[in-house]
């Protein structure tokens, strides 16, 4: 059994952790509409307050934080867990934001692109070695209906936003293989881990799978849902798994390497820090905690 250490508690549905060089972790608190820094001693400080529903977070090549803002949820308490509950009453759309970590200034980078639709609920983000970034749009859920969305690619300077994969079934976590040749995306309600062959910056092989670009890599049995993901240095994909509570570690060949359990049904994301990138930080969102443990293998050094 893995032993988890609570780094910080009292958070309002934390997600999108980013391990910083100074030993702190910057993450989002979706229910509070803010970006928060967790210091090594467990204390917190507010980095920015973009409002809405800040979700995925990544450090860009310009030293700025890039945030997928899903526009917000309604919330309810379920047996002591804070749980998102449909589209926020004051929802006005999703967007990609660029945030200055020093001043907290928030700039809206994208709301719409050249693809004839609007962003609904941007969720998770990863930069590639070309300076652009991939992100998922999870969409929003309303009574009796849910958005049909896709996977996008954008330039960090605000000059390009395009929908690369459509449709995608409620895509959530996103990541790249160590060589950048494979894009991974986790679908929440289908609980599928999908793989896409990258053919160039912002391009994937649209004919790779029977139904289009995506190839189903892994899908577990049972009552589970996939959330965000991280990639290990050796190529394994670590998918936060809701319901079963933990991290599903999947090989590039689609085999379950191990399942690392947590005690929060809403385990939502993972990142790695420390000099050897073997300190795993995991967001336990339902109980409002950031926890850590010594990971068996190093996480991938992210492009920034």
From TrEMBL:
InterPro entries tied to this protein: 6-blade_b-propeller_TolB-like, SGL, SMP-30/CGR1_Lactonase
Family matches, as Gene3D superfamilies: TolB, C-terminal domain
Coiled-coil positions: none
Keywords: Hydrolase
MF annotations from Gene Ontology: gluconolactonase activity
E.C. number(s) listed in UniProt: 3.1.1.17
Location of the SMP-30/Gluconolactonase/LRE-like region domain: 13-284
Top-level taxon of the source organism: Bacteria
PANTHER family: BLR2277 PROTEIN, LIPOPROTEIN-RELATED
The protein, known as: Gluconolactonase
Species this chain originates from: Sphingomonas jinjuensis
């Amino acid at each position: 059994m893995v032993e988890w250490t609570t780094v910080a508690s009292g958070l309002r549905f934390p997600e999108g952790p980013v391990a910083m060089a100074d030993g702190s972790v910057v993450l989002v608190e979706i229910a509070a509409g803010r970006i928060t820094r967790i210091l090594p001693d467990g204390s917190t400080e507010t980095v920015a307050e973009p409002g809405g529903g800040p979700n995925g977070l990544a450090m860009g090549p310009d030293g700025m934080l890039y945030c997928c803002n899903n526009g917000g949820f309604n919330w309810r308490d379920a047996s002591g867990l804070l749980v998102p509950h449909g589209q926020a009453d004051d929802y006005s759309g999703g967007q990609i934001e660029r945030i200055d970590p020093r001043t907290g200034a928030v700039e809206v980078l994208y709301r719409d692109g050249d693809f004839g639709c609007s962003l609904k609920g941007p969720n998770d983000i990863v930069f590639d070695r070309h300076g652009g970034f991939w992100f998922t749009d999870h969409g929003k859920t309303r009574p009796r209906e849910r958005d049909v969305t896709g996977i996008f690619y954008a330039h960090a300077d605000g000059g390009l936003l395009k929908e690369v994969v459509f449709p995608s079934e409620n895509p959530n976590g996103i990541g790249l293989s160590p060589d950048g040749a494979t894009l991974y995306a986790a679908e929440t309600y289908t609980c599928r881990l999908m793989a896409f062959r990258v053919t160039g910056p912002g391009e994937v092989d649209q004919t790779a799978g029977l139904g289009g670009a995506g190839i189903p890599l892994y899908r577990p049995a049972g009552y589970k849902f996939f959330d965000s993901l991280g990639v290990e240095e050796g190529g394994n994909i670590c998918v936060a798994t809701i319901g079963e509570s933990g991290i599903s570690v999947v090989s590039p060949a689609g085999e379950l390497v191990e399942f690392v359990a947590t005690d929060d049904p809403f385990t939502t994301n993972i990142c790695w820090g420390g000099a050897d990138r073997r300190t795993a930080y995991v967001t336990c969102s339902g109980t409002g905690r950031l926890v850590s443990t010594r990971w068996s293998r190093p996480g991938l050094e992210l492009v920034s």
